[in-house]
Amino acid sequence: MSSKVMFLYPNHEGYFRAPVGLTLIMTVTEIAGHEVKLFDTTFMNVSENKDDAVRVKSGQVKPVSMDNYFTKKSKEQIENAWLDAIEKFSPDLIATTIVEDSYEFADRLLNIAKKKFNIPVVVGGSMPTVVPQVIIENPNIDYVVEAEGEVSVPELLSAMEKDGDVSKVPNLWYKKDKKVLQTGLVKYLNMDDIPNQRLHFWDSKQFTKPYCGKLYTTGFFEASRGCMHKCHYCINRAFQVFQEESGKVRRNKSVNRIIEEVKALHKKMNFGLIMFTDDNFLARQPKELDELFDRWGKEIKVPYWINTCIETVNDRNLPQLKSSGCVGIGIGLETGSDWVRQHLLLKGKMHNDFYMEKFALMAKYKIRSTANNMIGIPGEYEADFFETIKLNKAIRALNKDLTSFDVSFMAPYMGTVIHNIALEMNLIKVHDKPGFKGMSKMNISMRQESTMVNPCMTKERIMELFYDFADYVSGKKDIPEKYLKNDLSRRYADSNEIYELYEKYKQGPIDPVLIVPKESIKEKELEETIRR
Ligand code: B12
Ligand code: SF4
Description:
7-stranded mixed β-sheet, TIM Barrel, 15% strand
């Protein structure tokens, strides 16, 4: 039998780029013989790419003209278009992907659809994976897929077509007789069993990417999933802890499958640039990398861009990356304070000089690097952030054409240790309604503004430093005298309470619903430190 599935991409910031996860879910649904339709709000909800606009304003990227990309529609127009699309297609299932930033927007669309048509709804993606127990309580949602959806959606559709018994569908949360039930997690997929992405669902604008001031036809691919590190702010830590039953989240696709998929899609799309969505691209055996670079250079020959961890770049792979066509490497630098890196972020034992050495190596082999930074970490003071500024300044001084930077706000995403800490320290006001319990009431964002109270810097100061970051790094603004001296191992809070919290969560995040906020921290230390 064949069912009809209406997919929703509830993208509300205009940050375009076809998401690999949802593309794969639509692909497997179609391969299983079902009819797929996509309603994508990316180009209708805003008059510009908001993410890019902030980066241009803060001096992080060059502006690129994207006239005619966006057709701004009012809230009513979007809602009517959504309802019309459902009415015309008459789907058996509505399916959507959720990141926390777009959850409320997605919920509004799901709510009006539920009221008018009462069609079953399944959701998956980053947020449902890390807090399925919260999302399943949403009355507008019937099924939540935790972790990988490739295995779940075709089975859910078969079960719905057969007799409606979904109790054997892997990775599923559902409701029966007013009770929440779950079917249990299955092992993570062997990445070689994942089919090639089908791209025809998307508007072709989703395959363009502004890069270094130009727009490129761009393909998005994955060569691996997951990361083995334990950073306190990262979703990978949540995957390691909450989906432990599924095995090791860090997996690689074989070199042969990577090359075959890219080759097949490049033939149709003629990409000018390829971006890998991996968190830690180079974390695989050197021999496999040798083969990958060799085959890429001979069989693909398209410039490509990767994200990887600092310790993975070296004298062996950088010349190969360069000669095979790698044009950019993104690195999570996050802070210039060794103390913040090691104690607050739990980002390994690396020191600033190690980062400097590796950034110098990337410049030596003429590959452009991007240092990604954060501001607003609970426990981070202005003095710490000036360490970040100084480190970025030193990296820029290596070579202005071959280095770049990016800065975003530390955001308390559910499922992370930082969210646990924000809850415990009363740094966020949270929802109590079903489907949203424990989620920050502020419109969470890592791009637009700081969305939690910070015990160590006022919001105004965080915003000021965010927008002045580029000027400090370029030298247009002088670093205040008092921050010129390096003091990488100092800590600033008077009491240990805030730092003890980080120690407490070294084993990883816990279910946010279990957290009881600590009044003492809020009232005494935090309010005083904000005033200082
Ligand atoms: C590539 C990437 C992007 C791409 C693509 C976005 C996307 N939605 O995939 C771009 C650059 C556009 C992007 C933008 C943004 N991103 Co982003 N991104 C990533 C990154 C690095 C990898 C995602 C990926 O491709 N993973 C591999 C695929 C295969 O996995 P997946 O997407 O999780 O999908 C699987 C399952 O989740 C599930 N699934 C997914 N969708 C569905 C749907 C259904 C119906 C079902 C059943 C299952 C299902 O099955 C999929 C296949 O196994 C992740 C970090 C990470 N490691 O996850 C951050 C991440 C997803 N991004 C994040 C954020 C915040 C954003 C932005 C808001 C950034 C901003 N502007 O502020 C925007 C929002 C865009 C949007 N509306 O989706 C956060 C989300 C946090 C959270 N807890 O919600 C993450 C986790 C990074 C972080 N900061 O922690 N991002
Ligand atoms: S190294 Fe990067 S991808 Fe890996 S856990 Fe840390 S932040 Fe996440």
